[in-house]
Structures are given as C-alpha cells and as structure tokens.
Amino acid sequence: MEAHLTEWLNLGIRWIHMITGIAWIGASFYFVWLENNLNRSNPRDGLAGDLWAIHGGGIYHLEKYKLAPPQMPDNLHWFKWEAYFTWLSGIALMLVVYYLNPSLYLVKPGVDLDPALAIAIGFGSMIAGYVAYHFLCDSVLGKRPALLGAVLFVLLIAAAFGFNLIFSGRAAYIHVGAIIGTIMAGNVFFTIMPAQRALVKAIEDGTTPDPTLPAKGLLRSRHNNYFTLPVLFIMISNHFPSTYGSQYNWLILAGIAVLAVLVRHYFNTRHDSSKYVWTLPVAALGMICLAYVTAPVRSTPEAAPVAVSESQPAVTVAKMEEISEAAPGAAGAKFTEVNKVIQQRCSVCHSAQPSSPMFSAAPLGFMLDTPQQIKGQAAKIHAQTVASQIMPLGNITQMTQEERDLIGTWIAQGAPLD
C-alpha cells in the first residue's frame, strides 16, 4: 500500500507541475511573441505599438503603451502564480522522488556521500545558482547579452559535470533543471513582479514611472524564454538513458541545450527576417549527430573501444571476448545463466507482480518475467545495466560486475534464447 500511495503522490505532484508549467511556458512564449510582433510604425500617441490577431473565430486588437496608460484600468490581469506553482510543485516532486530516498535515487552508486549532505548540495545549488545569475545580470555582463549567455552556459555545464561526479545520471540532469527553474522563478519573484508593482503604483500615485525597472523586467522575461526549451528537455530526459546514462552525459546536455536555444532564437526572431532559419536544419543535424555518437557499439572486429560504465575505462571487442570467457557460465554466455541473474537482480521490480516493497507495479511497464520479454528488451537492459550501470537503482540488489559482464556478453552474441 505504501508503494501505491507514493506512486499516486508522485503522479499528483507531477500532474500539477505539468499543468502549471504549461500555463507558465504558454504565457512566456505568447508575450515574447507579442513583444516581437508589435507594429511599431507610426503608433498613436503614447503607444509603443499595436497588433491585430485572429484566433478562435474572433479578431483581437492589442496595444502596448510606451510606459503606462494615463490611468489604471479597472481590471488588470497579472501573470505570476503559474511561475510560483511550477517551482513549488517542482521542489515537491524532487522531495518525493529524490530526497525521500537519496541513497536509492540521488547518490551515484559507488560514491561514499552522506545522503543528508547530498540533499544539502542539491538544494544549496539552486540557491547558489540564482544568486550567481542575479549577480552576473547586475554586473557589466548584463549589458552584453551574448557574453552573459556564454558565461551562464559554461557555469551550468560545469554544474552538470560536478553533479555527475556524485549524483546518479537522472539526478544530475534534474538538478541542473532545478537551478534553471529556480533562476526563472526568481526572475519573476525578485525582478519582474517588483518592476510591475512599481509601475502600477506610479500610475496610481500620478508620478512618472521609472523606465529602468520595466526594461529590466522585460530582459529577465527574455532570459526565461530562452531557458524554457533546455528545461523541457531535462523534464523528459529521464525516459532516455542514452542521454543521462552516458559517461559523457554533461556534454550531451550541453549539446542539446545549445540546439534548443538555437531553435528558440529562430522562433523569437522570425518576425523580423528569416536570417536565422539555418538554425532549424542545424538543430536537426545536431540531434542526428548526438544519436549517432551515443549509439551502443556493435560487436564487430572493427568496432572502436566502448565504455562499459561511467567509472571504467573503455574496452575493446577482444576484451569483451575475454570477459565472456571469464564470466559465470561463459561458454557462449548461456541464457539460463543470464535469466538467473535477471530474475534475481532485476525482476524484483520489473515484474508483473514486483516483490520489492517500493513498487506496486513494474516501473514504466517494463517487465522481465519471460524469456521473450527479456530478449525484446535486450537493448534497454544493456543501456541500463551494462553501459551506464544505473540499474538496479542504487544497486539495491547488489548486481556484481561479473553479472553485468555476463549480460553484456550475451547481448553482444545476439541475445540467443537457446
């Protein structure tokens, strides 16, 4: 029952996180699009520009004031709770998934790190990340957007590299996402909302608003817009072990982040011209290249060395043959021996009826009860238990290196069932 309740708690928080996140991202995308597409030619007095649009069977006319209208309207819509609840639900999700079981989900297997310290590092990194970002934005770099972006990129990828040394692959990725999410929510809470409140108060008091505050709020809003796609990738990355499970996962994250920013930049600038249309084919080609370089190496004599795990050096096919000879039941790496390992180390969770108290059903519906299921999932088994060694979670079932080598050898032979 405890596993069932935890699963539904996870689902409920994740559902809230997704709903509020969509609302926040939608508002961000729309208002940046609106700002970029305003007609600024000969606006009427007091306006920065206007825009006509059609949607849902109706025609809309939107106007933006240079700074403020002469008096406040009766109804003014604010956009803030989407950001706050997205961040709060994200923190709650981290507590449920990673911080309630830090030894299992957070700390990297084989790393001697106190769980409480790991949690402190994770949560502290979010605060430190926002403070560093805020300081850089208020420094001379704030007036040089391209250089500021490059510095932030290097710092975030450095954080990804550092997290990868102590956290599991999934936890490393999600904590980079948490830093970015904290920066985005912090922008709303500490910069954008105060600027908007000051603007409204000045109008109500009949004084001249300070134009620097709205300008700073707009800049931070643009930053949030560019952060969005990398964060979205991180949110879905736990479904793709070839990214977070790689020994070079921080470089993969860097590559995907760059491609995501390129795509976002095209959509942010296409109203002005198509000079950045090249970013779309470049992003597509970049994804193909990432898929290629992360592909598992096939067992051929010409194959290049391949890393067996995040912590081990690369091994050649010849070495794999030596492993096959040394592994238990190595005479052809018989399926009977492989099945015995899988049933003992993997099926406690990945079964129609898991014996592990942590799960009431097989995670992601991934079951390894029958020979056919095992053979059909051979590629995923290799990625999770041999290449990245992220499974079993926290190595809770104590799978040995010899058993991983046995599975790897069997899969390299074509995963025969006889």
Keywords:
4 strands, 15 helices, 418 residues
Termini Cα gap: 39 Å
* Shape verdict: elongated
Strand order of the largest sheet: 1-2
Strand percentage: 5-15%
State the domain count. Answer: 2
Helix content: 55-70%
Mean pLDDT: 87
What does this structure look like?
- Helix 2 runs antiparallel to helix 6 and helix 4 (115-138) runs antiparallel to helix 5 (145-166).
- The longest helix has 37 residues, at 169-205.
- This protein is mainly alpha-helical and 418 residues long.
- The strands form 2 sheets. A two-stranded antiparallel ribbon has the order 1-2. A two-stranded antiparallel sheet has the order 3-4.
- It has 2 domains: 2-68 and 79-293, no CATH class; 308-412, no CATH class.
- It is 61% helix and 5% strand.
- The two termini are 39 Å apart.
- It has helices at 2-37, 81-99, 102-106, 115-138, 145-166, 169-205, 212-236, 241-244, 249-269, 279-293, 317-326, 335-345, 371-376, 378-387, 401-412; strands at residues 47-55, 58-65, 306-307, 314-315.
- The protein has 15 helices and 4 strands.
